[in-house]
Write a structure and sequence with these properties.
Elements lengths: L12 H15 L4 H8 L3 H8 L7 H11 L8 H12 L4 H8 L4 E6 L10 H14 L4 H16 L8 E7 H5 L4 H16 L4 E6 L13 E5 L5 E6 L4 E4 L2 H17 L3 H13 L3
Parallel strand pairs: 1-2, 2-3
Antiparallel strand pairs: 1-4, 4-5, 5-6
């Protein structure tokens, strides 16, 4: 078949969803156009879901359940789409990650926990396992989260790595996660990260008070064509935005945050001082 893209269901839940959609479609002898007609959407949309370029929405999944007769069963597409949305990845995040892997510049702001791209495996595992204990994640989803983050981190070591600028709220380094040993290794990793030639690490100290412009995590990517996209999320929702009228104010606020935050030298000194307390 011309232009048939190979699928990799082992990569994640959205990929598994797309692979199953394709297998059921082909078992019926349908083309993407045939399925699109039955579901009331475009063949391009079918293709994007099958190849995990677009996450399946609940509405799309309910239509798939009607077409394939999987409604209210253990194999329900709607149930699977909810696991994708509320399990490992929030809406908009898969598309963000695809851009992140080719960005020339990454700007991150985080509060409460160390940004994912800077987490050690042990730190990530503690957070994932705690989500399982709270009942907000399954063990399988926890494993997927750990694997997925490792894949994102590996993209930063490509032959031409991006410039990575990170501002963390002071709460990120003061909040104990996993006990002294895990936290000590994590703080050491942050100091090593700051020493890389393509990175800048700053802490937004408590002292900046009301001058902190963000109350939620913010990610900004500069792409190879020098366009900028933004991704922000709350506890249950993620939103990707590429409109300059929405993105440019966020970029301007990020610059203001960098100016108010501690310098990299001051940040590393804070980290090393905290590290002494974990010994």
């Amino acid at each position: 078949m011309v232009n048939r893209k190979e699928l990799h269901p082992e990569k994640g839940p959205a990929d598994r969803y797309g692979d199953r959609l394709r297998r059921l479609r082909e078992a019926q002898g349908w083309t993407q156009e045939d399925l699109a007609e039955r579901m009331g959407c475009s063949s391009q949309h079918i293709s994007a879901v099958e190849t995990a370029r677009k996450p399946p929405t609940p509405r799309f999944s309910r239509k798939a359940d009607v077409v394939f007769g999987t409604a209210e069963t253990a194999e329900s597409f709607e149930r699977e789409s909810q696991q994708i949305k509320h399990g490992v990845l929030l809406e908009g995040f898969p598309e963000y990650v695809a851009h992140e892997g080719r960005a020339v510049e990454i700007r991150l702001y985080e509060l409460g926990i160390i940004p994912g791209l800077l987490q050690t495996p042990a730190y990530t595992r503690v957070l994932a396992d705690r989500a399982v204990q709270r009942g907000s994640s399954t063990p399988e989803q926890a494993d997927e989260r750990v694997r997925f983050l490792a894949e994102r981190q590996s993209a930063l070591t490509r032959s031409r790595p991006p410039t990575v600028l990170v501002v963390m709220d002071e709460s990120c380094i003061r909040r104990q996660v996993g006990g002294p040993a895990v936290m000590a290794a994590q703080l050491d990793h942050l100091a090593d990260f700051a020493a890389l030639p393509n990175t800048t690490l700053q802490v937004a100290t408590y002292a900046i008070g009301e001058h902190r412009p963000f109350n939620l995590p913010v990610n900004l990517l500069t792409l190879p064509d020098w366009s900028v996209i933004a991704y922000a999320e709350s506890q249950m929702q993620g939103h990707l935005d590429r409109e300059p009228t929405a993105v440019m104010p966020l970029l301007r606020a990020y610059h203001q945050l960098q100016a108010a935050a501690a310098s990299q030298a001051e940040t590393v000194a804070m980290i090393r001082e905290l590290r002494k307390g974990t010994s």
